[in-house]
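Discussion board: Methods & Data

I've been asked by a reviewer to show the raw model output for two of the constructs in my manuscript, not just the figures. I'm not sure how much to include, so I'm pasting the format here to get opinions. Each protein appears as its amino acid sequence followed by a line of discrete structure tokens. Is this the kind of thing reviewers expect to see in a supplement, or should I convert it first? Here is construct A:
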Amino acid sequence: MKVYEYLAKDVFKKNGIPVPNGILAETAEEAEKAAEEMGKPVAIKSQVLVGGRGKAGGIKFAENPSKAYEMAEEILGMEIKGETVEKILVEEKMDIISEFYVSVAVDRSAKKPLIMASSEGGVDIEEVARKTPEKIIKYHVNPLDEFLPYQARDVARKMGVENPLISKVGGIIWKLFKIFQKYDAHIAEINPLVITDKGLIAADAKLDIDDDALYRQKELIKIEKTKDEFAYVKLEGDIAVIGNGAGLTLSGMDMLNIYGGEPATFLDIGGGASQENIARALNLVISDPDVKVVFLNVLGGITRADDVARGVLDVLEASERKVPLVIRLTGTNEEEGRRILTEAGVSFETSMETAAQKAVEMCKSLE
């Protein structure tokens, strides 16, 4: 699960890593108001889950609120590598003295966490590795041992950090490693970690969580909300998963993995979703070009199966993009729900296992 920058920075801040003052905005008016509140030049940063946003024009600077409005209008709605910008982060513009790169990632070949750090921050780290590999410090951590602050200071020292800053940079590295562990991350990254007249600040933040550990990271899942108050997380697969309850949604994702599928979304419509909410959730995932099949996994309790069925038909009738839909439907008013689907010629399953297998087979047939 890739986490948006603004959420990653919330995590970093809660765990002791300084980040710039920032306000999330969804409209140009909100961006202008945020700039007014800050009372200083700001950075307007697109919130997308792909890299290269700076080169694509997804980061701009504004000297005043009216300029912030103008820049926000340019960025909102633009597409960056196929992802539409729906949110922007308005941050105070910093006076940067120098920049570092720091990350913790899973090294699959070594089967250990790998800390990578460099005095060359703010640039493409792959380019640094290619041209000047000696500037990248690599430090493997034994997963059976505790990573201690003195080891983090040793990484900072090897980076070439000046003596007065070794302890502070080492402290950031140590805290980043703790975040990596606490949140079951594939990667936790700061690029750049900047020195300003206010001290060290994480100017950017990246956090990718292991999908198999999402059940332990309900805090992050709850934060990821759409305007309709769905718990929604975009993933890297091609089968959208919708369920009524976090546990049921995660179970559906696990079942897809067992049969060789890859979830494209985690979307929890909650325990009492209405016909309208069902329709909005389906429209949300269908609008994602990466989604090839939708797996709707409903165990009706408060959510009624007949409401689910009607919501499905609303979408099938109105949607221009036709995406195959696999429905697992059981629970409250299930007979009425199944009758509605049957009369409309829409198939369904009562077993989650059967439905998940069918979704995977259907997706593979489209390749």
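Construct B, same format:
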Amino acid sequence: MLRGLSAVAATAPELFDDPEAEDVHHFVEKRLQQEIGETALKLHAGRSRNEQIATDLRLFVRAACNTLQTQLAELAQAAAAQAKKAGMAAMPSYTHLQRAEPVLVAHWLLAYCEMFLRDATRLADCRARLNYCPLGSGAIAGATLKLDREMVAAELKFTAPTANSMDATSDRDFAIEFAQTLSIVAVHLSRWAEEFILFSTLEYGFVHLPESYSTGSSAMPQKQNPDALELIRGKAGRVIGAAQQLLVTLKGLPLAYNKDMQETQEPVFAVADTVSMMLKVAAGFMREVTLDLDHMTKAAGTGYMNAMAAATYLSEKGVPFRRAHEIIGRAVRLGLEQGRELHEMLIDDLKGISEAFDADFYESVTLQAVLDCHNVTGGTARERVAQALAEMEARLQKLLPVEDSDVHA
């Protein structure tokens, strides 16, 4: 039987098409019978397709989790490499799509690294919960032969056998969790793509699109369109839809196995393939994209984005922050009237608003000072970001691919 199964495993893919086979398990049994004769009919002893299908799907999702974790790490590594390359370059940050405060470019990129690493840990959690072996559960009540379920689980690198035969044959929680986890990955990728699309426009000018990940217009020769990013953004809807499909399919099923569950397989395969493709494209784009660091840094020094630091300056002079906020608001209005940034305003004009202003004000609102005043864990101060980048690189080194040599998706 082992010799025959080895021969079946070597079957060319084009021979898999068998209109008489009910499913892959029946196909294997039929092919095995061609190899070794009637002994092949013993292959099904102690087995049910219900438990086999549940096991197959767990093996697929487990292998997919490994692959996707590696791809997330590769994308985060590409983002971290861009962050390291950016050095101490700055850029505007935004709330409500309005300029807010300057941050280091590296700080912005590391924000996405954090998202992608959380996604990787979610996949690891999903993998840990699904890694129990249904084989030996029979159709619903357990196998009728005294099988060594622990040995089978160990051979297939599962943590242990499943604890309840009814649950094992009907459980698709792991499929829902997998699809929902990938929905979060897709949302993160969509947000990332949207921001790079915005920043590549002439209005921002922070990003130069790599030619290999963009296309020209069929009508306007000057156009360079971010098609790869737009497709990533668009495919997020497909992934989210597949997760919803699984929930709707399973919401009314009684215990245990029902044929409706056949409809859970295609969405699982679809989300795994789609997100894998999205991650591959995103990592390639991130490696090749060019950031206009000079333009980003220049933009970080305009638009009164040092107003928060200016209010902090006054609060350190003993002015209550609520009052300091009001004073700086008046200073900004005066600056708008005069066509001056805060750091360009005359000290006499500032003193006319509040006697708390002094000559040392200008040192506190330089770009470097504004960055460094956010000197807290997780802040954009240059020292903090350098530390965060080093820690991110160390975390990524530990996020090695999980080998699954015996089982392939």
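Answer (T.O., handling editor elsewhere):
This is acceptable in a supplement if you add a one-line summary per construct. For B, something like: The two ends are 24 Å apart (CA to CA).
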